[in-house]
Task: inverse folding
């Protein structure tokens, strides 16, 4: 669990992301994670601007997702909960073990679906058409 | 990163498409702008190769529009990719109940802090008398 004490109430989504950035180690660390190609100070500055609603700079949806994902990894769910709540949803973090089980379940589903498709294909091509073709 | 992974943008585009298209959604998001410029801006925001990006409030508004119409792909994409369970839509009543619960929790915490503060002030007064 993250040792950072999250705020009780957020003003807006940017406020919750700011809290998340603090929990992840601050603007320099997180800025460098988002823009590894930029000098640290510049990246930190850019991130501050992105979370300031008075500024034009914004994070891309993928960068927001990355922050939320890093938050989940340190069990800091404030920003994700805020986003979900504002959008009218309830979400729960998935533990890595559950995630692995979920991936296995989905892989098995996909395999079963693929097998069904292959079976149908086989039936189709072994049907009358193939018989006609072989004559 | 942005150009390689555009699943989220695709999910947002799906919602916009199903809500009547970029022009209609842009007019809802930015009623103060001219329809043509709002439309162009939204198209740019949904294009991973453009610099324009959706603000957090716009992002929420699009996901919310989808949710209200029963289209959950955008929130599903965020949750799944960030390692969360499939989000379940909550009703307005549930939302209100949750807000009430959090309000009461915040009140309770505030009362606890006040009690602690009074305790500290009491000890400080006692300390003052000792001197």
Result:
């Amino acid at each position: 669990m993250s040792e950072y004490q999250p705020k009780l109430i957020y003003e807006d989504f940017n406020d919750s992301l700011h809290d998340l950035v603090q929990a992840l180690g601050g603007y320099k660390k997180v800025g460098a994670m988002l823009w590894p190609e930029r000098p640290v100070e510049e990246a930190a500055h850019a991130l501050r601007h992105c979370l300031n609603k008075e500024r034009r700079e914004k994070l891309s949806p993928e960068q927001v997702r990355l922050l939320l994902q890093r938050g989940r990894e340190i069990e800091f769910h404030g920003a994700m909960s805020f986003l979900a709540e504002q959008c009218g949803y309830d979400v729960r973090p998935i533990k890595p073990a559950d995630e692995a089980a979920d991936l296995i379940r989905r892989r098995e589903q996909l395999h079963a679906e693929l097998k069904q498709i292959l079976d149908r294909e086989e039936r189709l091509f072994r049907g009358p058409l193939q018989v006609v073709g072989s004559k | 990163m942005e150009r390689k992974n555009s699943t989220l943008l695709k999910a947002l585009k799906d919602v916009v498409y199903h809500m009547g298209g970029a022009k209609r959604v842009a007019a809802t998001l930015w009623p103060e702008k001219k329809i043509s410029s709002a439309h162009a801006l939204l198209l740019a925001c949904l294009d991973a190769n453009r610099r324009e990006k959706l603000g957090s409030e716009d992002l929420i508004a699009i996901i919310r529009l989808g949710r209200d119409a029963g289209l959950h792909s955008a929130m599903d994409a965020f949750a799944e990719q960030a390692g969360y369970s499939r989000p379940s839509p909550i009703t307005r009543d549930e939302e209100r109940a949750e807000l009430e619960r959090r309000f009461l929790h915040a009140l309770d915490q505030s009362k606890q802090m006040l009690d602690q503060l009074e305790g500290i002030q009491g000890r400080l007064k006692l300390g003052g008398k000792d001197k």
Observations:
- Chain A touches chain B at residues 8-9, 12-14, 17, 53, 58-66, 68-69, 71-73, 80, 83-94, 99 (CB under 8 Å).
- Chain A has two domains: 13-87, 96-134.
- Residues 96-134 of chain A form one domain.
